[in-house]
Amino acid sequence: MEAVPRTVRAMLTTMKTVVALVAALACSVTAVSAKLVTERVAYEHDGVPLSGVLVYDDELTAAGKRPGVLVVHEWWGLNEFAQERATAVARLGYVGFALDMYGAGQVADDPKRAGELAGQFYGKPLMAERARAGLEAMLATGLVDESRVASIGFCFGGAVSQALAYSGAPLAGIVSFHGSLISASAEAAQRNRAKFLICHGAADNFIPKESLDAFIRSLDAGGIDYQFISYAGGLHAFMNPGADAVREKFGLNIAYHPDAARRAWGHMQQFLAEIFAR
Fold first, then answer.
1. pLDDT category, 166, cuts 50, 70, 90?
2. Which domain holds residue 203?
3. CA of 257: how far to CAs of 75, 173, 180, 182, 233, in Å?
């Protein structure tokens, strides 16, 4: 066989290198294209302008509609913690939507103001109605499988998720993290379509024992499918890494509990996998 000239061998080596680089670049582009997208979504309820945060994996949504998870903020409003939780939900492969209960830009920085903002909803249909507007905004994106939707909430947001379920909203399930508790009336239990996961701090003195007992009795009486998990040592706001700073500043009996937070998030993942299963 005739020997290949040195110049030809050099050209072939160069071509192989270029092909390898192109292939590597193509793989890199594919990996980069699968990313989390974060978008602000403007919507309104009863004339009140609202602004939620939508987070999703664009590669997954390009392949088809995904389960959707509403994220309902604490009494502080739609702050960085709520937005981060929507991002964490999206990393699990779901569409996360951090809804806005107070109105665009309203975030409290002290307990008095937070109480005023949250207080306008308790005991009123407005709580479920405003949350329903967030649900509809998420569904209107066209990214969510309407048969696989859940709501998760923290503190005030836990109560909001319960109220939304009691209204008969099309939810497969809700998760309440150290949430205020709303007992289910017979009518509310009949309207409810969701399974419940209640993640409660065993040391949370924001929830009186009699209120907790009444809540559990109402779920039993209403035949609601629920799981109630109590985390040893967990105070109110145990999921929020920023709770300790708030405790120091305002003297509230709250604290971040890393072990409880990790376990509760893991229990939520198991719960969502169950309710979203085909």
1. very high
2. 34-275
3. 19, 25, 18, 24, 8
- Give the integer Cα–Cα distance in Å for 17 and 15: 5
Element housing 147 (H / E):
strand 144-154
Secondary structure (DSSP) of 50-81: EEEEEEEEHHHHHHS-EEEEEEE--TT-S-HH
Same-domain pairing of 10 and 121: no
Radius of gyration for the alpha carbons in the chain, expressed in angstroms and rounded: 24
pLDDT, tens only, 46-80? 999 999 999 999 999 999 999 999 999 999 999 99
Total-model pTM:
0.88
Which CATH number covers residue 153? 3.40.50.1820
Rounded Cα distance between 134 and 46, Å, is 12
Q: What percent of the chain is modeled with pLDDT above 90?
A: 86
Residue type, 56: Y
